[in-house]
Automatic annotation (TrEMBL):
It comes from the Bacteria. This is Iron ABC transporter substrate-binding protein. It holds the Pfam family SBP_bac_6. InterPro entries: Ferric-bd (IPR026045). The keyword Transport applies. PANTHER family: IRON-UTILIZATION PERIPLASMIC PROTEIN (PTHR30006:SF15), THIAMINE-BINDING PERIPLASMIC PROTEIN-RELATED (PTHR30006). It comes from Cryobacterium breve. Belongs to the bacterial solute-binding protein 1 family. SUPFAM superfamilies: Periplasmic binding protein-like II. Residues 1-26 form the signal peptide.
């Protein structure tokens, strides 16, 4: 799907109204899973966008009185930190941008089961089958391209096509970040280890490496490179502002449940060793509930809500139209991906 009607996008962004006042309170939403009232304080190891999580924390505190302390870092940094800390960790909640870091912590047996009432708010495709954490937001893989350098008819039908020598020097990515590593993790789950290893070897020859999705988009916009693999919200966030880093680009969505159509699930989980599990579970209930998901809908992160009760920002292509591959998020593997990407010379 090619997005060419920017006037429609900007109109949609401009007409979004704040709905947070109608959201359910955290106390109300957690009441279905526990009879205790949340109180005290919690520490959240936060790998999600700081502005987004701060908005969640502020609203949760306003509604419950629970103090939320954020320890911010990246997916891999905080995931590995939690594994290292083990049962000595002071974290109550872990939030990620992508699911492999959450799976890493889950596999270390550090997560408590999420309350059933919280799990029920999130459709099955956006949470793991284990029930030890849940999806809290989502982002779509897209191929940003510069129409002055590459025509629509030249765009690849599949992410796998980028391994063809014809794409040498014609596409970019940021392989050192958790975003791209999550995409490779989906490729691993869908195509297997040998195919992923071969694709990464071809990528090493074909791709131009930048640091950060924003940098990839800027390079495409400036005409340094015809196209690049990024997540959708970088483009929408820039379009909602000045548009200076995306004005010469369009977005292409892979279809047919291709690995390039992967939708990455951001995760939220409660630590088994939490000293305040009632408040920790209530915080997760708030994020996945109406009030927390409306912060996604009306905020500036341009990520997708995953609760069935809240639609995405109307500027976005609906999740239901993305034709993404169905993958159990708990099966996405950060350790094997790191090994494969190191072997390929990216890490």
């Amino acid at each position: 799907m090619i997005l060419t009607r920017r006037w429609a996008l900007l109109t949609a962004i401009g007409t979004v109204t704040l709905l947070g006042a109608t959201g359910c309170s955290a106390a109300d939403e957690s009441a279905t899973s526990t009879s205790a009232t949340p109180s005290g304080s919690i520490t959240v190891y936060n790998a999600q966008h700081e502005e987004l999580t701060q908005a969640w924390a502020d609203e949760f505190t306003a509604e419950t009185g629970v103090t939320v302390t954020l320890r911010n870092g990246s997916d891999s940094e905080l995931g590995n930190q939690l594994v290292q800390e083990g049962t000595a960790s002071k974290a109550d909640v872990f939030l990620t941008e992508n699911s492999p870091a959450m799976s890493l912590v889950e596999q270390a047996d550090l997560l408590a089961p999420v309350d059933d009432a919280t799990l029920e708010k999130v459709p099955e495709q956006y949470r793991p089958s284990t029930g030890l954490w849940t999806g809290i937001a989502a982002r779509s893989t897209v191929f940003a391209y510069n129409p002055s350098l590459i025509s629509e008819s030249e765009l690849p039908a599949s992410l796998l096509d980028l391994a063809d020598p014809a794409w040498a020097g014609r596409w970019a990515a940021s392989p050192s970040g958790a975003d791209f590593q999550a995409i490779v993790s989906a490729l691993l789950e869908l195509e297997g280890e040998d195919a992923t290893r071969d694709w990464l070897a071809a990528m090493k020859q074909n791709a131009v490496v930048y640091k950060g999705n924003s940098t990839v988009m800027k390079a495409v916009n400036a005409g340094e490179i015809p196209a690049g693999v990024i997540y959708h919200y970088y483009w929408f966030g820039d379009q909602a502002g000045t548009g200076e880093n995306s004005s010469s680009t369009e977005m292409y969505y892979f279809k047919n449940q291709d690995p390039g159509a992967f939708v990455s699930v951001s995760g939220g989980g409660v630590l088994e060793t939490s000293e305040n599990p009632v408040a920790a579970q209530a915080f997760l209930a708030f994020i996945t509930g109406k009030g927390g998901q409306e912060i996604l809908q009306t905020g500036t992160s341009f990520e997708y809500p995953v609760s069935g009760s809240v639609d995405a920002n109307p500027a976005l292509v609906p999740l239901s139209e993305l034709d993404a591959p169905v993958i159990d998020p708990s099966k996405l593997n950060s350790t094997t991906v790191t090994d494969l990407m190191t072997e390929a010379g990216f890490l």
